[in-house]
Design brief:
Strand content of chain B: under 5%
Structural class of chain B: mainly alpha
Structural class of chain A: alpha+beta
Strand content of chain A: 25-35%
Radius of gyration of chain B: 24 Å
Oligomer: heterodimer
Order of helices and strands of chain B: HHHHHHHHHHHHHHHHHHH
Order of helices and strands of chain A: EHHEEEEHE
Helix content of chain B: over 70%
Shape of chain B: elongated
Largest sheet of chain B: none
Strand order of the largest sheet of chain A: 2-5-1-6
Largest sheet of chain A: 4 strands, antiparallel
Chain lengths: 123, 404
């Protein structure tokens, strides 16, 4: 079963971390990716640039209107995701709990099953 | 290119040869490489020089030589045991060995996850390439390769014996093998995402593998039952989706599109297996499928018989999904209220809590009972809960239909 584990980041929370804590997150992701690759459960993972770099596109009267910044004025933004293929939802939740972000106060990761896929997946 | 007949022969012989080699030498991975090289040699040599009189023996000899060469170079001269093993020569030709079974039992080792069992079975027994398996399951090839290699390591770590288990263990392991083949078939049958075509191939592959098991175990009722179930289900494949890819329920399917050849074969197999001494869940599910196949129109379905078969199935293999299906049959025999009453027995079952099948069956029975508002709500909840996009579309269309 395929699941998207999405990481919802809060820039304020991340900025408040010490450099050591930030480095530990990076190292934790490295270990997590290595383990997922070895178990044959990783489909792909991607991390996104800072939400301040986002552009929101709306088409009005047939004309695209582009504005800078994230879609929602929120505290949390999508920071990146893991797409995994694993045995069941319990396993996906177990994997999500291994992501360093999940252990940080003020952050959380979300697990949702994939319903449709198309296109070549080449990690 | 190899002629189709030679290709079929190679696909049939490959797992037998691999099984024989694994049984003789252990070392799954090395044996697999050696057999692949032998098969490659055969595809080059056989068309040019003619198929040997004993193709299995030919492959066995070539693969054994390759394996021994490989082991010799791997271990250089320091491991004398392999030199002596090499002198023993290729394994004996025993015509009635069930090497394919040995291999299947190994691939469906109980320490592996279902996903690994499936991948390894398709790779080693089905002879599919890692890329083909990856495509069928819509995962990157690297992911599938890691899964297969991890499965092999696990088998090695489990120190699995390369001979057929005996008695009760054999029975138990065979059930796992059949379940894995059933899962492969289902993967092909429920084309919920991606290219429907490659998934249909998985159903064909599962049928081919069950046929292979059946030639080894013709007396096993459940093996025959599973084959019958697959054939009878596969017979409806053209009718179960519309041209637009939408799901068509059994009662609305154009029965002229059902494959009569598969139905005839499946029905014969069901009859033969029901005459045997044992009765298992696959035989019963096949018998239910045969009852449906026997009805010229949906209205002519012998629901009393379907219900009776579900009742037996519920008794020998209790499972809320079976009860759910029995509720549909019961509603046809005694009316929707009787079906709904049976469903309420499932409400307390935590395995069914929030399950879209329970919601969609309830919606269906409420619709039959004339409760349109209730049916609408449950169709909508079921549409939200399913992970299949085809099913969601279907449930949404039912919701829209009862609202009018």
């Amino acid at each position: 079963m395929k699941f998207l584990i999405s990481m919802h980041i809060n820039p304020a929370v991340l900025d408040a971390l010490t450099p050591e804590e930030q480095a530990a997150i990076g190292a934790g992701h490295g270990r997590f990716i290595a383990a997922l690759k070895e178990s044959g459960e990783l489909l792909t993972t991607q991390a996104l640039v800072d939400p301040s770099q986002a552009a929101v596109v709306r088409v009005r009267n047939g004309q695209p209107v582009v504005s800078d910044g994230p879609y929602l004025e929120a505290k949390e933004y999508l920071g990146g995701f893991y797409l995994v293929d694993c045995e069941n939802k319990e396993r996906a939740v177990e994997l999500a709990a291994q992501i360093p972000d999940a252990a940080i106060e003020g952050l959380g990761v979300e697990v949702r099953q994939v319903m449709f896929s198309e296109g070549q997946l080449e990690a | 290119m190899t002629a189709p007949a030679a290709e079929d022969l190679l696909r049939e012989l490959t797992p037998q040869v691999l099984g024989a080699l694994v049984r003789r030498y252990g070392r799954f991975e090395g044996c697999e490489d050696a057999v692949q090289e032998a098969v490659l040699a055969a595809t080059v040599q056989w068309p040019a020089e003619g198929t040997p009189r004993n193709p299995r023996g030919w492959l066995l000899t070539v693969a054994s030589r390759r394996l021994i060469d490989q082991l010799r170079s791997d271990h250089a001269r320091r491991e004398r045991e392999w030199t002596s093993a090499a002198e023993v020569g290729p394994p004996e030709e025993v015509p009635d060995t069930d090497d394919t079974l040995v291999l299947l039992f190994l691939c469906c080792h109980p320490t592996l996850t279902a996903a690994s069992q499936i991948a390894l079975t398709l790779r080693a027994v089905g002879g599919l390439t890692t890329a083909e398996i990856a495509r069928a399951f819509l995962v990157p090839e690297a992911t599938m390769a890691a899964r297969i290699s991890r499965a092999k390591q696990r088998i090695k770590a489990a120190g699995s014996s390369c001979s057929l288990p005996e008695g009760a263990e054999r029975e138990e392991r065979l059930r796992v093998v059949l379940h894995v083949l059933y899962l492969i078939f289902n993967e092909g049958y429920t084309a919920s995402s991606g290219s429907a075509l490659s998934r249909a191939d998985l159903a064909d592959e599962a049928i081919r593998l069950v046929r292979m098991v059946r030639t080894q175990l013709p007396e096993d009722g459940e093996v025959t039952g599973l084959l019958a179930l697959m054939l009878l289900t596969h017979a409806r494949r053209e009718a179960r989706t519309s041209g637009a890819g939408d799901l068509v329920p059994l009662d609305e399917q154009n029965r002229a599109k059902w494959d009569r050849g598969l139905i005839a074969e499946g029905t014969e197999l069901v009859k033969a297996s029901l005459a045997g001494p044992e009765l298992g869940p696959y035989q019963l599910q096949a018998a239910i499928a045969a009852t449906h196949a026997d009805a010229a129109t949906a209205a002519e379905t012998d629901w009393a018989q379907v219900h009776a078969l579900y009742l037996i199935l519920e008794r020998i293999a209790p499972n809320p999904m079976v009860t759910l299906n029995r509720a549909i049959a019961l509603a046809e025999v005694e009316g929707p209220q009787a079906g709904l009453a049976l469903l309420s027995a499932l409400d307390g079952d935590e395995r069914m809590a929030g399950h879209h099948r329970l919601m969609s069956v309830r919606a269906h029975l409420l619709e039959q009972a004339g409760d349109k508002a209730g049916a609408y709500d449950h169709y909508r909840s079921a549409a939200k809960a399913t992970a299949s996009i085809t099913e969601r579309r279907y449930l949404e269309s039912r919701a829209a239909a009862v609202k009018q």
